[in-house]
Amino acid sequence: MKKTALIIGAGPAGLTAAYELLTKTGIVPVVIEQDTQVGGLSKTINYKGNKIDIGGHRFFSKSERVINWWLHFLPLDAAARKQHIDIQYQHNHAAFDISQEHLGSGDKIMMVRPRKSRIYYQRKFFDYPLQLNGKTIANLGVLKMIRIAGSYLYAKLFPRKPEINLAQFFTNRFGSELYETFFKDYTEKVWGVPCEKIPSSWGQQRVKDLNISRLLWHAVTSFFSSNKSLQQKGTSTSLIEQFLYPKFGPGQMWEAVAEEIQKLGGTILLNTRLSALHGNERGLITHAETIHQVTGETNSWNAAYFFSSMPVKELFEKMQGIPIPQEVMHIAQNLEYRDFLIVGILAEDLAVKENNTEGLVKDNWIYIQDNKIKAGRIQVFNNWSPFMVNDPGTVWLGIEYFCNETDAFWQQDDKLIAATAIREMEIIGILDAARVKDSMVARVKKAYPSYYGSYSNFSSVQKFTDSIENLFLIGRNGMHRYNNSDHSMLTAMTAVENIINDRKDKQNIWEINTEEDYHEEQS
């Protein structure tokens, strides 16, 4: 009989693991997903033909393996082929071989989309990441720029050591004036705690070596040439100029993957959640119990391998039969998360215009730097893909809120939350409430694993789960690490490789997005 693998979660990590098992081993995957659709945080919500990308997902990776994987399921729009072949001659160091099999047309395609994000501060637009150019100087004023330059020089001469928290991390790289103006408020909206309570390791993972000197260098070099290759090696992720994007949003990718998994003999069970994960004293998981959230039907699954992309805190709550040290259980139970809420707003037009003309702003994201406004960021779905919008004559926005499910705001009625979002957008001059046609609200629990709470002792949890030979933690929530989609996929690929190679040590899974080979920023 073929071996079985039970995979918890049908997000990028779980579905990648299932496909890799089917195509590289004789192991048959069973994927359970408590949502009504696949994709996890990368799903696409369809509201009356208007599509919402939860959190915004740029398909961009330094990994050629990941790009090839994506293009296998959704080929690159054939119209982009000539552009990329021409670019290869200009940027041989970042060339990417687009073979005929990776080209397509119709609906099942990847488009190449321009990247533009800006900060909206005091009703003015600033490039994101912040660019030291004439427009920035004009917006801020000479005196403000002098203070920024002075505090930056001071930070370079007298850096704060040791660099323990995120406030110190940002201050050392940008100076206190720039940190207070453009980093502090937004970061604290996202995480709900002061930057002083967030470890600097978060910045080291997410921002890496981005600093003022790199911003200046990018501004100078981009004036003479532009790196349009798919991988954009040598360019910080925050500075990329384009990215891949499925025609109908990120969920289209994972729906295509799920369809192929089922064709190959894998099983995907929606509306199904884990109720118990049983183990024995020998330190192995023996079987899992699941329950269908609609019918109440229960099932027991014997498997040789178990993959988990569910939140670590919830995973430990389901474990039975395995002796868990009290200290490890305490750490797992006290891990913290940040929940995510997005308000879709359909409008006839926006009050704010691109370059004060009649055109729609070209941003994918607009970061709101205003501590009087609860919203943290705006997505303009028209600019992610025009096919995300049912009526091309309308503007489809996603207003993002970072909160906890215990917050009064989260627990309000959808209509009240939508009214708050509309009012806030009117206050800061983004839209006119009278021109709003429709709205909706979507909530996502445990969207962001937090780097505070008991996270500082997470290594004990990692060591314990690694000792369970047939259990593999993968993905963002599975590893309690703020990974991007490509890194989550690589954790799944590596876990499957470990099974193939009979490798017991799982350190290589944890090194993804930390060691040099996987860094978004490469020399």
Give the class from helix and strand content and strand pairing: alpha/beta
What would you report as the Rg, rounded to the nearest angstrom? 23 Å
The assigned CATH architecture of the domain at 4-40 and 252-334 and 454-518 is 3-Layer(bba) Sandwich
Kindly, what is the distance between the CA atoms of the first and last residues, rounded to a whole number of angstroms?
Answer: 48 Å
Strand content: 15-25%
Tell the overall outline: globular
Oligomer: single chain
Helix content estimate: 25-40%
Strands of the widest sheet, in order across it, are: 9-8-18-19-20-17-21
Q: Overall mean pLDDT score?
A: 88
Count of runs of 4 or more consecutive helical residues: 20
**Sequence stretches where pLDDT stays below 50 over 5 or more residues:** 85-98, 515-523
CATH topology of the domain at 4-40 and 252-334 and 454-518: FAD/NAD(P)-binding domain
